[in-house]
Amino acid sequence: MIRPYGFLLTLAGFCNMNATQEQPELDLTQPLSIDDAMDLAMNLHHAGHHEDAYKIYSRVLELEPNHPDALHFMGIMAHQRGCDEDAIRLMSHSVDLRPDHAGFRSNLGNLLLDNERFEAAQWQYCQALVLDPDRPDALNNLAVLCKELGRYEEAERYLRQALDLSPDFTDARNNLARLYSRMGRIQEAVEQASEALVREPRSASSREMLGYAYCKSGQFDAAAKVYREWLADEPDHPTAVHHLAACTGQGVPPRASDAYVQSVFDAFSARFDARLANLEYRAPQLLAEAVAACLGAATANLEVLDAGCGTGLCAPLLKPFASRLTGVDLSSGMLNKARARTLYDTLRQAELTADLWQRAAGYDLIVSADTLVYFGELDETMRAAAHALRPGGHLCFTVEALAEGESGDYRLQHHGRYAHSRDYLEATLAQAGFAILTLERVVPRCEGGEPVAGWLALAQRRR
């Protein structure tokens, strides 16, 4: 997996869906009108009390099956649970009932975009803007779509319009900074991210974007200042801690923290596959080709682990080899997407190394596509992988490569991922009890239009 610096969608009708607040006091002795029940349900939903909200939405729909608000927010809840087909059905029904509701259309567009239904998403955003041409959220969301499709000039125009309407719209300003970064207009990215932080001084997304823009422009001291100020306000914030180490080289952790990895991939799970496609992501295909070259024709007779499975991009390539296919990942958002593929026999949310230690001789094949770029020290993980493999079993993985001539075992790069040396990989695999069958340079993806140097390793546990 890699860190994608993506756009921020703005949800029109329910902006803080993941907030956890005190539960409102309930007076269950008094009957409620449907309107009062909906107000209560939305307050509960907003506060993170999803089960209680779900019960009320369900009861409203029992009494009034075509209640547009209940359908719409049940759809949002279905999306939060990872059931996007149900969410699309419910939210589409709410739009059919309330075709004049621009917020409903914008939210449905977000959901369609998350599921890479680009034309349908664009239609909903455009209809929202026909209904209300001055909706900055719809303009922002339409810009997100255009950026995903590589239509950068359109995206810039929509974001500029959104900011003309709402200069303090932090999401739109950070999206413009991201767009400029993607377009190579780094100084403009810095300017927009700086302005976003001036307008909302403690915005985590603005701090993250500004630090990233400074790093990309080579202004590492300025980036460090952003992260230190962030930590002064939010001590131990996982993103600030990790990226301060990345840009200074001080206090580098042996691997990215669980909290950091979860926050990154939960946030970007919705459109992760599309973003990797934009980066010409090839790691799953490269791994599958290496496995096939080693093992021969797939016969569906192996216990296979997809280690750091993400959204399940490797699953279609690994399934032909597997009598049983297991996926493990830290991110619940990623696992929800992987589950929707219906290709895994088992999916677990767990830290990879700890999970491997619990599976003695459980697998014939372990495959890991770019998960280990969030690990610096690999010694324990390689030992755990050997422990989890049966004698003669195979481990196949990709990591990023240190630059030619760069010394050291590994380095935490400014974007937050680790790169490793060939000598370190060889030594670590050998010490863990592996015979190296393949260790070759590959290009697992491109970034900023440039190829990313990587290693592909295929090793066999000694019998």
Automatic annotation (TrEMBL):
Pfam families: Methyltransf_23, TPR_14, TPR_19. PROSITE patterns: TPR (PS50005), TPR_REGION (PS50293). It comes from the Bacteria. GO terms for molecular function: methyltransferase activity. InterPro entries: CellSynth/LPSAsmb/PSIAsmb, SAM-dependent_MTases_sf, TPR-like_helical_dom_sf, TPR_rpt. TPR repeats lie at residues 34-67, 102-135, 136-169, 170-203, 204-237. Keywords: Methyltransferase, Repeat, TPR repeat, Transferase. One of its GO terms (biological process) is methylation. This is Putative methyltransferase (Contains TPR repeat).
